[in-house]
Specification:
The complex is a heterodimer.
Chain A: H1 4-13, E1 15-19, E2 22-25, H2 26-54, H3 60-81, H4 90-107, H5 109-124, E3 132-135, E4 138-145, E5 149-154, E6 159-163, H6 164-169, E7 172-174, E8 180-189, H7 195-208, E9 219-225, E10 230-239, H8 243-260, H9 277-296, H10 302-307
Antiparallel strand pairs in A: 1-2, 3-4, 3-7, 4-5, 5-6, 8-10, 9-10
Helix pairs in contact in A: 2-3, 7-8
Chain B: E1 3-5, E2 9-13, E3 16-23, E4 26-33, E5 36-42, E6 48-54, E7 66-77, E8 82-90, E9 92-98, E10 106-112, E11 118-121, E12 128-135, E13 149-158, E14 164-172, E15 179-180, E16 184-192, E17 198-202, E18 207-208, E19 213-216, E20 219-223, H1 227-230, E21 240-242
Parallel strand pairs in B: 7-12, 13-16
Antiparallel strand pairs in B: 1-6, 2-3, 3-4, 4-5, 6-9, 7-14, 8-13, 9-10, 11-12, 15-16, 15-20, 16-17, 17-21, 18-19, 19-20
The chains are: A alpha+beta, B mainly beta.
Chain lengths: ~300, ~250
């Protein structure tokens, strides 16, 4: 045993390769790996702790980017500061960065693009975690915005990973970007129904709905005189979190209330004016007869001609 | 109806029925109000039920912490003036369960007897959704049904030199402090900063006694447990900055 210890120490001092900063030993390499691993573990523990602490105090969309910035920022600082252990001079890295940057840039164009887009997404914040969005035809909830990609849970419950570059460069529709939103119905009633009464009934129903906002004011008006109906347009503003429930509930209530008050939604219809057939025939026969009589009066008729 | 109750008990008023009964080794909380029925099981003995008014921002669904009170008539306040008015505000009835000594209160039910309506204060793009209430303006404290409406003593202060035309005020629930005893009371202030902006908040009341009592107009009122007051949230402003006019 006594002989083994000096041999072990010797192993740690064993030089692997030499750089401008001096020889890099096995011990240096182990130190580098240990510090990096410990930093990752400590940062993970710290992130979990902070996530728990901030859970009730800061919203997820604010807390998560802060935690990610703290995690990756600290990791980069630690990594750069321990580079001399493996014989890499960080200042030299800066100088070599120009050439290396071009090489890496070409090699990892997409990754860098996604990374930069991810940073812009985190700072510009066109979308936040928890938002309902539509990106590139994919609609759903944003579950996470990562450094390289954004995760969206569709309304069907599917998880879609979209590269950040795609998110950043395409049109994003943020369904919950504003605190309120408007929805619209077109209610068709018969021409024989009283449109003013229908408007009054609809306005009363809207007034009874707590989530149909008082301001901006809802509007109910006759918008079109259609082929088979008088078309009433109903426009209502509601909080973004409540609009869908209100829209589905209120439409059925409007239908029921209008029917209860004798106002009906008509089927498509067309009024046809049909003249009776015998009258038409009589009319057709009679006319040429008279005309023929006038025209043929000085001339012999067919029978007379045949006879002659 | 407001007060402290030791189970078993049953209380009924204005169509609301609240009871806690023993069923085997459990307690059953029952509440009926019109067609609305709530039933919950309570596991634990030596608990107390507290029924008191709470911030009017929990029903039908808690979607905003802000209350907008629209005045029935527009008020004109001269520059540099300070005036006191009385308004009404909607009341919600909160039912709490607490340990002995009224410690660790926990909301178990909340209901409202008044009409609910929401509105937007500000622009569509960046405004705030608020619970809406229309109130008359009174020079003396009005007599109201405490299960439906409360009295707000509002001190208006125009710090600008121009006349201010006031038709609404927005309050944040996080600063609300309600007091009750026969009536429901809240004391607030509104500082007009300039032509378009104002700041609202609630007055810190002198409280007497362990339970927290407010002496006002020779009347002793008890401090109510609030839903928002129980939440230990950091970084939440207690004042509301009205930046889109009043």
């Amino acid at each position: 045993m006594g002989l083994l210890i000096p041999q072990d120490i010797g192993f740690l001092d064993h030089g692997l390769y030499s750089t401008s900063l001096g020889p890099v030993t096995c011990g240096n390499l182990i130190k580098f790996v240990l510090i990096l691993s410990l930093s990752i573990i400590l940062l993970r523990v710290l992130t979990i702790y902070l996530r728990r602490v901030l859970k009730d105090r800061v919203s997820k969309d604010v807390g998560e980017p802060i935690l990610k910035l703290l995690y990756y920022g600290t990791l980069v600082v630690v990594f750069i500061s321990i580079l001399p252990l493996i014989g890499i001079d960080p200042s030299g890295l800066m100088l070599a960065g120009g050439v290396a940057g071009i090489v890496i840039g070409f090699a990892s164009q997409n990754i860098v693009g996604n990374l930069v887009s991810g940073c812009f997404l985190m700072f510009e914040r066109p979308i936040k975690i928890g938002d309902q969005v539509e990106v590139n035809g994919i609609a759903g909830y944003v579950t996470d915005i990562r450094i390289i990609s954004t995760l969206i849970r569709t309304y069907d419950g599917l998880l879609v990973r979209i590269p950040n570059q795609q998110v950043f460069t395409t049109n994003i529709t943020n369904i919950v970007g504003h605190p309120v939103r408007r929805f619209e119905y077109t209610i068709r009633i018969r021409y024989s129904d009283d449109a003013s009464a229908a408007i009054w009934l609809i306005k009363d129903l809207i007034d009874q709905e707590p989530f149909a906002l008082r301001n901006p004011t809802p509007s109910v008006f006759v918008n079109d005189l259609g082929e088979s109906s008088v078309n009433i347009t109903v426009r209502i503003w509601a909080p973004v979190s409540e609009w869908f429930g209100l829209k589905t509930r209120l439409l059925w209530n409007i239908k029921k209330t209008l029917e209860e008050n004798g106002i009906e939604i008509p089927y498509p219809q067309r009024v046809l004016h049909i003249k009776s057939e015998p009258e038409k025939i009589q009319h057709v026969i009679e006319e040429p007869k008279e005309q023929q009589f006038i025209e043929n009066e000085p001339v012999l008729n067919f029978e007379e001609r045949v006879l002659n | 109806m407001y007060g402290y109750y030791d189970p078993p008990f049953s209380v009924e008023q204005e169509g609301i029925s609240i009871s806690v009964e023993r069923t085997g080794d459990k307690w059953t909380y029952r509440r009926t109000s019109g067609k609305d029925e709530v039933e919950k099981l309570i596991l634990g003995d030596r608990k107390r039920i507290i029924i008191n008014p709470v911030e009017p921002l929990n029903t039908p669904k808690e979607i905003t912490p802000n209350l907008l009170i629209e005045f029935e008539k527009t008020l004109l306040l001269a520059g540099g003036e300070k005036k006191q008015i009385f308004l009404t505000f909607p009341v919600e009835i909160g039912v709490f369960i607490s340990d002995v000594g009224d410690k660790n209160p926990q909301l178990i039910d909340v209901l409202s007897l008044v009409r609910q309506k929401f509105t937007l204060y500000g622009e569509v793009s960046n405004g705030v959704v608020c619970k809406h209430w229309k109130s008359g303006i009174y020079s003396v404290s009005p007599s109201l049904n405490p299960l439906q409406e409360g009295i707000m003593e509002l001190t208006l202060r125009n710090t600008s030199s121009d006349w201010a035309s006031i038709s609404k005020a927005v309050f944040s629930a996080y600063g609300m402090k309600l007091y009750y005893d026969g009536d429901v009371f809240m004391k607030a202030r509104m500082d007009i900063l300039n032509r378009n902006t104002a700041e609202t908040g609630f007055e810190i009341q002198p409280i007497n006694g362990e339970m927290g009592y407010l002496v006002k107009d020779q009347k002793i009122r008890k401090e109510a447990f609030g839903v928002y007051g129980l939440r230990k949230l950091g970084f939440v402003p207690l004042k509301f900055y009205m930046g889109w006019g009043f």
